[in-house]
């Protein structure tokens, strides 16, 4: 696919059978498709945010693509594809070090990069969290709050949170987060412990 053709994809995009047309329509909403500046030169967005207009506006030089659901190629911009599903079986932990290193190498030289998955909520958010832990030396909890300030919808799935907890232990020797089981709104759920006393994060857990 050529860069010039990509602008048409936000209307009638072709994705895999596991993604419905309604799923993609949701990710076109502004809270998903916006380019969220996470830290210097690093943006986070959804697949629907990867348009010619946005890539030019934010002067993107490298795309890190975690959207297994769709294949695309943009000739004029460097693009790395990672085929991780948003599921508990995906070993995203195996990518944290190398991708963080690549992002740092680019951003430290002033190159703008964007990380995206299908929604810009789980896989790509987990990758951004790993980067902040490794290179900004933030705890997982503080890294999450930093990203959530810029992009309120972020919520890596529980398996990715567990992998982030393991990564934090590797980096710092301990973790600022544990996963807990609790009852919320009459439902038994597993959440990061710091969510429990944060009304905004709890509200996001039950947002449809």
TrEMBL record:
Q: Which residues form the Tyrosine specific protein phosphatases domain?
A: 90-151
Task: Extract the Pfam families matched here.
Answer: DSPc
Gene3D superfamilies noted in UniProt? Protein tyrosine phosphatase superfamily (3.90.190.10)
Which of UniProt's keywords are assigned here?
A: Hydrolase, Protein phosphatase
> Is Hydrolase one of the keywords?
yes
Question: InterPro entries recorded for this chain?
Answer: Dual-sp_phosphatase_cat-dom, Dual_spec_Phospatases, Prot-tyrosine_phosphatase-like, Tyr_Pase_AS, Tyr_Pase_dom, TYR_PHOSPHATASE_DUAL_dom
Q: Where is the Tyrosine-protein phosphatase domain?
A: 34-173
The cellular component terms of Gene Ontology attached to this UniProt record, alphabetical and capped at eight, are:
cytoplasm
Q: Molecular function terms in GO for this entry? A: phosphoprotein phosphatase activity
Q: Does the keyword 4Fe-4S apply?
A: no
> Hey, which family's this protein in?
Belongs to the protein-tyrosine phosphatase family. Non-receptor class dual specificity subfamily.
Name of the protein this chain belongs to: Dual specificity protein phosphatase 14-like protein
Which species? Leptotrombidium deliense
């Amino acid at each position: 696919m050529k860069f010039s053709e990509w602008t048409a994809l936000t209307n009638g995009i072709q994705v895999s059978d596991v993604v419905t047309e309604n799923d993609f329509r949701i990710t076109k909403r502004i809270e998903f498709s916006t380019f969220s500046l996470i830290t210097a030169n690093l943006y986070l967005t959804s697949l629907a945010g990867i348009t010619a207009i946005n890539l030019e506006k934010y002067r993107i030089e490298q795309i890190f693509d975690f959207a297994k659901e769709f294949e695309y190629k943009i000739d004029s911009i460097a693009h790395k594809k990672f085929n991780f599903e948003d599921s508990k079986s995906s070993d995203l932990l195996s990518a944290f070090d190398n991708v963080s290193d690549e992002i740092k190498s680019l951003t430290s030289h002033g190159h703008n990069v964007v990380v995206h998955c299908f929604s810009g909520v789980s896989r790509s958010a987990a990758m951004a969290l790993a980067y902040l832990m490794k290179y900004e030396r933030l705890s997982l909890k503080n890294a999450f709050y930093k990203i959530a300030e810029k992009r309120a919808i972020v919520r890596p799935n529980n398996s990715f949170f567990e992998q982030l907890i393991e990564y934090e232990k590797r980096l710092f020797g301990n973790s600022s987060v544990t996963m807990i089981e609790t009852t919320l709104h009459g439902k038994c759920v597993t959440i990061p412990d710091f969510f429990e006393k944060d009304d905004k994060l709890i509200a996001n857990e039950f947002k449809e």
